[in-house]
């Protein structure tokens, strides 16, 4: 049974002014690697939280430091072998031992202000699909005692915040207007979600073994699973040192690492702006399922017209037509549907030339607002977000939009020569 409630689309603002009936249990998962002084500062700050101590669990996960970190009584320490940069595996290990209703992820060098846990846990406690990004500020803490109140020490040694992130939060109204690329604005070092939703999405992908990318991949997958993305600007945590974007732009090693991260993500996140412009990655963005056709010619006209409108799509066809499309890599026999942002069901063969504009618009926008499904004549354009919420709550949470158009079913002789020649 899911506790809490859902909201239409990404409308976390409908929960403004509401508080949980009681403070939720919060499990704080802190990832560490050879950062004892930073860890000391963060653990000290966690002991000063306004969130009730008896509702707070702290788990430190060490990513293979040569010497285990020192942690005070009451803090659980887990360790994993040093096999590269394995923040993804470390977060999963911590989450697997968490008992709180809400999991709050922090890095050892990211120190929260006193109200951080209270503010970060509110939305996930009310709406279990909420994925919350805190405000990560930056400071140079060198020489600052670890027990200095961070809400004073941070402003005294403050560094610039990344302007691109501030601009994104401002233009999206703190992610209220999130879309399919808003995963870029949720950082794993200052993130929270319900344990129920984390388990529903699945953990971080442990194939990520270099710096960066594992949080964005998870947030994108969470978005497809129905996440409600929110930025909580008054939940402040201070990172010791500048933001990655504020470091030496001329460092070739840094630039190479950023390129490696971007290349890796093209295989995981297939939306426009993240995927290659022409090179296809492993993930599926739009999946079309053709249920049937009266002849190979009708199947061909239908699939060809669909791919002419949506060239980035993948199409599944009945087994009887698989050989017809053997040379087209975008077309496969029917089978289990892979995770895709959009699923288009075509119950019978049709030509979509006349609804190209409507079909493209539905595919580009469905799931990002409150409309989760668009029906264009007999064609159903369904977002992954709508499907996920439907499965979780047993009811429609997104709106369905109907576009009334005539799309006659193709007959066994669809006029193939005329279609290809352009006179039909």
Structural commentary:
This protein is of the alpha/beta class. It contains twelve helices and 16 strands. The strands form two sheets. Strands 1, 2, 3, 4, 5, 6, 7, 8 and 9 form a nine-stranded mixed sheet that branches. It has a seven-stranded mixed sheet with strand order 12-11-10-13-15-14-16. Helix 1 links the parallel strand 1 (26-32) and strand 2. The protein starts with 25 loop residues before the first strand and ends with a helix.
List the helices and strands and how they pair.
Layout: E1 26-32, H1 36-47, E2 56-62, E3 76-79, H2 87-96, E4 102-107, E5 110-112, H3 116-126, E6 130-139, H4 150-156, E7 158-159, H5 163-171, E8 190-194, H6 195-201, H7 214-224, E9 228-240, H8 252-266, E10 284-290, H9 296-309, E11 314-317, E12 331-333, E13 340-346, H10 356-365, E14 371-376, E15 379-383, H11 384-393, E16 399-403, H12 416-421
Parallel strand pairs: 1-2, 1-4, 2-3, 6-9, 10-11, 10-13, 11-12, 14-16
Antiparallel strand pairs: 4-8, 5-9, 6-7, 6-8, 13-15, 14-15
InterPro entries: Galactosyl_T_C (IPR027791), Glyco_trans_2-like (IPR001173), Nucleotide-diphossugar_trans (IPR029044)
Domain Glycosyltransferase 2-like: 27-138
Pathway: Cell wall biogenesis; cell wall polysaccharide biosynthesis
Q: What is the arithmetic mean of pLDDT?
A: 93
Any idea of the CATH topology of the largest domain?
Answer: Spore Coat Polysaccharide Biosynthesis Protein SpsA, Chain A
| N-to-C span | 55 Å
- What percentage of the residues does DSSP assign to strands (E)? 15-25%
Q: What's the CATH H-level homologous superfamily of the largest domain?
A: Spore Coat Polysaccharide Biosynthesis Protein SpsA, Chain A
Q: SSE string, helix = H, strand = E?
A: EHEEHEEHEHEHEHHEHEHEEEHEEHEH
How many strands appear in the DSSP assignment? 16
Number of domains: 2
How would the global form be characterised?
elongated
Architecture of the largest domain in CATH? Answer: Alpha-Beta Complex
Rg calc: 24 Å
Number of helices: 12
Question: Under the CATH scheme, which class of the largest domain?
Answer: Alpha Beta
